[in-house]
Design brief:
Layout: E1 9-10, H1 14-19, E2 23-27, E3 30-35, H2 39-48, E4 51-54, E5 59-64, H3 68-75, E6 89-95, E7 101-111, E8 114-119, H4 124-137, E9 144-147, E10 152-158, H5 162-170, E11 182-187, E12 190-195, E13 204-210, H6 214-225, E14 231-233, H7 235-244, H8 279-288, E15 292-299, E16 310-312, E17 318-328, E18 333-341, E19 348-351, E20 356-361, H9 371-374
Parallel strand pairs: 1-3, 4-14
Antiparallel strand pairs: 2-3, 4-10, 5-8, 5-9, 6-7, 7-8, 10-13, 11-12, 12-13, 15-18, 15-20, 16-17, 16-19, 17-18, 19-20
Helix pairs in contact: 2-7
């Protein structure tokens, strides 16, 4: 029987956060920084210079063994062979047999017998159990699943000056990395998987390395980041940054009861690769259509919308709901993500008991063409 500890875990950077006056929060059983100088200040620093994010509580797994490649192909919706071995990463989904999203993940193609991937914080235990059940069903060469969440530290550096910082720390070879590529490097002789990925919509990099070096690596990176105007960034700002970019959050915007098509993630499904878990169900959903679709909203005035707020048409008909909302410092407006029900023609709604005027808009709200995160170094 699995028992959840009542005492929260701390990330390898905990003492760094305390030393810099962070207000802490507990999420998924982890103590993480909620804010340092304030969410809006941290958002602006990330958009204009760079921010350091403690992402350690995210789940981290390795799939190893002779059957690693066919196994990863079978459990994910995207086609791993579209990524370059030893260099490429891919964004994909884990779906169950009904087509429900177990989690959305980023997979790094180390080699044909080893894959490393990252899950959402709240999904770690569930994904681990699901992977173990998949191993028992897998009809292929020996394959092994390892939860490396605790042993692998995870630090995210995001913002337009992150490339300059990474080149200072790792050298000019960083310049060769394109969006969703990685390299194996070292920092003061600490082995690092350095990836050009992130959750903010900015040029960014993520460092994965042995946890025992966490305090020292964060301190070293932060000291160097300060020369570029970099600041530590808490979870409150991270949520704003990802909402501005329209990034979905599993456990907030979607659950295992949602499918890729209603989430606007159908582009992550590659039927041509062959069989994978959920394939038949997803084909049926694609043919039948979905009951609702994931969209963006803007609200009038300064009325921040609460998660779960119901939307109605002027006629009073139920139209959908809000899943995430914030005041965007970048756009200086209230923005939100959520669902609109099938058959609703209007794009003008009323939100909650206060009848806040809300208008459906395209997502992402920020940098719709992705120029910032895909730019050249």
């Amino acid at each position: 029987m699995s028992i959840t500890p009542e005492i929260p875990r701390v990330t390898p950077y905990y003492l760094n956060h305390i030393e810099h006056g962070a207000t802490m929060m507990t999420k998924g059983g982890w103590q993480r920084p909620l804010r340092f100088k304030g969410a809006e200040t941290e958002v602006r620093a990330t958009r204009q210079a760079l921010g350091l994010i403690d992402a350690h509580s995210m789940g981290k797994f390795e799939i190893c063994g002779p059957g690693a490649l066919p196994f990863i192909q079978w459990i994910t919706t995207n086609d791993m062979t579209r990524a370059e071995e030893g260099r490429g990463a891919i964004y994909t989904l884990l779906c169950n047999d009904r087509g429900g999203i177990v989690d959305d993940i980023v997979v790094y193609y180390i080699n044909r017998t080893r894959f490393y991937f990252i899950t959402n914080t709240l999904s770690t235990a569930r994904v681990h159990q699901w992977l173990e059940s998949c191993i028992k069903r897998f009809d292929g060469p020996p394959t092994f699943v390892f939860d490396v969440t605790n042993k692998t530290a995870y630090l995210s550096v995001q913002g337009p000056l992150s490339g300059a910082l990474m080149m200072k720390l790792f050298g000019e070879t960083v310049r060769q990395l394109k969006y969703f590529q990685f390299m194996l490097a070292d920092l003061l002789n600490v082995p690092v998987l350095l990836a050009r990925t992130g959750y903010t919509g900015e040029l960014g990099f993520e460092l994965n390395f042995p946890s025992e070096f966490g305090y020292g690596v964060w301190k070293h990176v932060q000291e160097n980041a300060a020369h570029f105007g970099g600041v530590p960034v808490g979870g409150e700002a991270v949520q704003i940054l990802r909402i501005e970019k329209g990034y979905r959050s599993h456990g907030t915007d979607m659950t295992i009861d949602n499918n890729p098509y209603e989430m606007g993630l159908g582009w992550l499904i590659r039927y041509q690769k062959g069989d994978f878990i959920g394939r038949d169900a997803l084909l049926r959903i694609q043919e039948e259509g979905v009951a609702s679709r994931f969209v963006g909203f803007e609200a009038e005035g300064n009325s921040t919308l609460q998660n779960g707020t119901c939307l109605t048409c002027d006629s009073g008909r139920s139209a959908g709901r809000v899943t995430s909302s914030c005041h965007s410092p970048t756009l200086d407006k209230i923005i939100a993500l959520g669902f609109v029900e099938r058959g609703i023609e209007t794009k003008e709604f009323r939100a909650g008991s206060g009848n806040v005027p809300v208008r459906q808009v395209a997502i992402p709200f920020y940098d719709r063409g992705g120029d910032r995160l895909r730019g050249l170094l």
